[in-house]
């Protein structure tokens, strides 16, 4: 009876497959190469026309939009325009940005933005006013050191150039919270010093205000004005959810400084700048392995304040270990402490320290000869005359025996936590072990919560 039931089920399954229709398609349809859509063919025809005239594809060199052909709804009609980037070497302005608009099943050339120079460095499509049309912001690379920035309005009938300027760096961000993008340009006027300039749209796109950078951001150690003073421009928020730009520059011989710019009462201001010194003194740092980031994930940017940690029985000026005080800033430039970390850039991890450890901590390394195991030991050191008491070691483990060494003695796993039964599949394992020198009050779970892998920092280009 059971065999008959199985046979009946099998017959029913076969009938269901036959009724799907797949078995009634011609063999040539089953193996046919998918055909491109008519829209694709129409666009390809327009692109081929440019190539036939000697055009070479010239995609933007940097930024998020680096494709040779890009799709954007520029005029707000719900249909995407095709934007293609070319170089026509024989023409006076060889760089061309073609905008193709779809009409029915065809594509027509709507407009061509032309530029001189060596390359198209970057392109952004943004909303800078309350019209439905997007603006196109283009960085033209004139030479390896010289760039020109221009913004274009894409209207229903034509493309119009709104502004053009030379620049050292720039950033687009909604700084005044009007749901439209503002443009901040960092540039050095002829015979002047670098400054930040705010461009806002009020009928026209124009410079509405400017703000100074820290003197030490653009004056080199030799007293001359640097041409490459910017090292990063990041967008983020202050403690009161005010949008801001976090502008980092080199400082002195080996330091860094971050100026924080925000819009207040319609004007761009450097909120961390000390008017007496002319510098954002609160953000100067001489350990530069860490940079501003939202380290605690609360949507507000934190800035690092590195502090050297005294080494036990080492009397030289060299610093082996640094603690990082992470602080947020408000719209008036006041610092608000968040927490303190030890960042191990070499091994790719950081650890959030309890507040009471700050003034009673000593660190040391204990690397395994031959490699494969690198450890950092935390010790309690209440006073200079005392001997530090080790209480916690964090290990980075690699090599063929890493999974065995991760479970050696009283060690417990810190990373990866989601594959404890398959540690061999992870090329790197992080583990920890409590030592007997001092009771820190931490449990294994607390150590795991305070431990984090250093992730690649978010885009801070300019």
Q: What would a concise description of this structure say?
A:
With 462 residues, this protein is mainly β.
Walk me through the structure.
This protein is mostly beta strands. Helix content is 11%, strand content 41%. It has 6 helices and 27 strands. The strands form 6 sheets. Strands 1, 2, 3, 4 and 5 form a 5-stranded antiparallel sheet that branches. Strand 8 and strand 9 (159-166) form a beta hairpin. The longest helix is centred in the N-terminal third of the chain and has 18 residues, at 2-19. The radius of gyration is 30 Å and the shape is globular. Residues 1-35 have low confidence and may be disordered.
End-to-end gap: 76 Å
State mean pLDDT (0 to 100 scale).
89
The number of E-state strands comes to: 27
Spans where pLDDT lies below 50 across 5 or more residues: 1-35
Helical segment count: 6
Radius of gyration: 30 Å
Shape: globular
Largest sheet: 5 strands, antiparallel
- Secondary-structure content class: mainly beta
Work out the helicity level.
10-25%
Beta-strand portion reads 35-45%
Short key terms for the protein model shown above:
11% helix; five-stranded antiparallel β-sheet; 27 strands; mainly beta; 462 residues
């Amino acid at each position: 009876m059971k065999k008959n039931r199985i046979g009946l089920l099998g017959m029913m399954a076969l009938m269901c497959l036959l009724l799907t229709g797949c078995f009634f398609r011609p063999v040539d349809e089953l193996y046919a190469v998918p055909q491109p859509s008519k829209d694709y063919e129409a666009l390809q025809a327009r692109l081929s026309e440019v190539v036939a005239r000697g055009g070479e594809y010239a995609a933007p060199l940097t930024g998020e939009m680096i494709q040779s052909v890009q799709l954007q709804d520029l005029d707000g009609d719900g249909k995407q325009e095709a934007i293609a980037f070319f170089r026509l070497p024989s023409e006076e302005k060889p760089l061309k940005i073609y905008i193709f608009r779809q009409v029915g099943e065809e594509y027509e050339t709507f407009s061509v933005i032309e530029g001189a120079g060596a390359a198209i460095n970057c392109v952004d499509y943004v909303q800078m006013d309350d019209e439905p049309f997007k603006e196109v912001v283009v960085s033209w690379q004139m030479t390896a050191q010289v760039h020109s920035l221009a913004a274009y309005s894409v209207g229903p009938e034509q493309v119009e150039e709104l502004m053009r300027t030379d620049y050292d760096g720039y950033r687009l961000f909604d700084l005044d919270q009007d749901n439209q993008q503002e443009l901040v340009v960092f540039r050095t006027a002829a015979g002047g010093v670098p400054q930040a300039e705010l461009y806002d749209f009020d009928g026209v796109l124009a410079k509405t205000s400017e703000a100074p950078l820290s003197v030490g951001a653009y004056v080199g150690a030799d007293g001359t004005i640097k041409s490459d003073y910017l090292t990063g421009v990041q967008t983020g928020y202050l403690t009161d959810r005010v949008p801001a730009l976090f502008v980092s520059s080199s400082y002195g011989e080996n330091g860094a400084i971050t100026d924080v710019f925000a819009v207040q009462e319609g004007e761009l201001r450097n909120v961390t700048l000390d008017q007496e010194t002319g510098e954002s003194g609160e953000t100067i740092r001489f350990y530069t392995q860490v940079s501003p980031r939202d380290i605690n994930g609360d949507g507000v940017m934190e800035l690092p304040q590195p502090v050297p940690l005294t080494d036990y029985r080492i009397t030289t000026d060299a610093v082996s270990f640094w603690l990082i005080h992470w602080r947020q800033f408000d719209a008036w430039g006041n610092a608000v402490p968040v927490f303190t970390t030890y960042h191990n850039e070499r091994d790719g991890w950081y650890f959030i320290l309890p507040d009471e450890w700050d003034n009673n901590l000593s660190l040391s390394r204990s690397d395994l000869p031959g490699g494969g195991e690198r450890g950092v030991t935390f010790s309690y050191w209440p006073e200079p005359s005392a001997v530090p008491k080790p209480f916690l070691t964090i290990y980075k483990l690699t090599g063929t025996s890493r999974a065995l060494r991760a479970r050696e003695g009283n060690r417990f796993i810190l990373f990866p936590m989601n594959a404890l039964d398959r540690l061999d599949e992870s090329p790197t394992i992080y583990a920890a072990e409590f030592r007997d020198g001092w009771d820190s009050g931490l449990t294994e779970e607390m150590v795991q919560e305070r431990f984090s892998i250093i992730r690649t920092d978010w885009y801070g280009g300019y």
